[in-house]
Amino acid sequence: MTNHDLLNIAKTYGDPVYVYDSEKIIAQFNRLTNAFSGVKKLKLNYAAKALSNITILKLMNSLGSGLDTVSIQEVQLGLLAGFKPENIIFTPNGVSLEEIEEAAKLGVRINIDNLSILEQFGSKFPKVPVCIRINPHVMAGGNSNISVGHIDSKFGISIHQIPHLLRIVELTQMHINGIHMHTGSDILDIDVFLYASEILFETAKNFKELDFIDFGSGFKVPYKEGDIETNIEELGSKLTEKFNAFCKEYGKELTLAFEPGKFLVSEAGQFLAKVNVVKQTTSTVFASIDSGFNHLIRPMLYGSYHQIENISNPEGRERYYSVVGYICETDTFASNRRITEISEGDILTFKNAGAYCFTMASNYNSRFRPAEVLWHKGEAVLIRERETLEDIIKNQVDVKNLFSKKEKATAK
Prior knowledge:
The chain is α/β, with parallel strands linked by helices and 412 residues long. Helices cover 29% and strands 23% of the residues. Helix 2 (22-35) crosses helix 9, helix 6 (115-124) runs parallel beside helix 7 (162-172) and helix 8 (190-204) runs parallel beside helix 9 (232-250). The longest helix has 19 residues, at 232-250. Belongs to the Orn/Lys/Arg decarboxylase class-II family. LysA subfamily. Pyridoxal 5'-phosphate binds at residues 218, 356.
């Protein structure tokens, strides 16, 4: 997909617009599969929350992926996309028992991360197989907001609570068919991940009827040229060896599961936005675009880095710009970034915009969420229309005659 292709997409479908490259998604899926080719049973469950457009879900299903979901709505989207219930795992956090029951009735696999719900669910549905999410108390991840396996995290059942967990399983006679962990996102240190896996293996020995062990995901992708990333091939080699040894000790060939999201779709995505104003101040040159953190919140929320290129003038002289949005709060995508010379009307592209970008977009300031386009086999395919004012107001209730009479102030 060339700059010319991207400019044509912006012209055809308007801007801002999200664009995803199916070829890159497929390549990442195959890369992860190949890294663990030494495992007899491997299951990749795509994390729907990263990018939940139903066309993307259908693409994942066509590749043989399962689906990792965190809400009943994602479960329903997965079923609409054609996933079989047994290929969907429901891994919520802090949801009601009623929502978990609803997912169980749909036939998807259940993953529970707290003792209270585990006891309630096991008492009510002892014959429904359940996976347990363990918190290994291992700090991993590139930002405190996306590091979820440490001791202060709200996610998972603490390894120090295993005796209590086992007591619940014994009393309810529930069937535990899987053990799960997720330490965080943007993992760089493979040894930390492998250390956490050893904790998971030790925990798994407490359960005699497991079908799978789920190691989560969180693999780091490069955000700019020369950036470091998780060495998937090295991790695959080392974890495969440990996993196969554990299966031999356990006496059963278990399924090795992962739930990649960002790893599969981040690099496939680009976000295109037009420059509205180039503003010179006493110390800074601002490039203000026709978007804001209502469309792309990650830089403001996580401090995430997105490489920004001026595809309207790719060969121009580089200058320093602060790229900002049109939201009336601090809304900065990049500060003093070297970008080829920008003029008003130019189209900028934000790289690594496939994961946790559109899915966290909002209608803040009553702005419309942008269109989404899939670049597939050399063609641009619209997979989500740009919103309109009708979309903004369609669920609002205009109560007739509520304010039809002017209230008169009464002197007291």
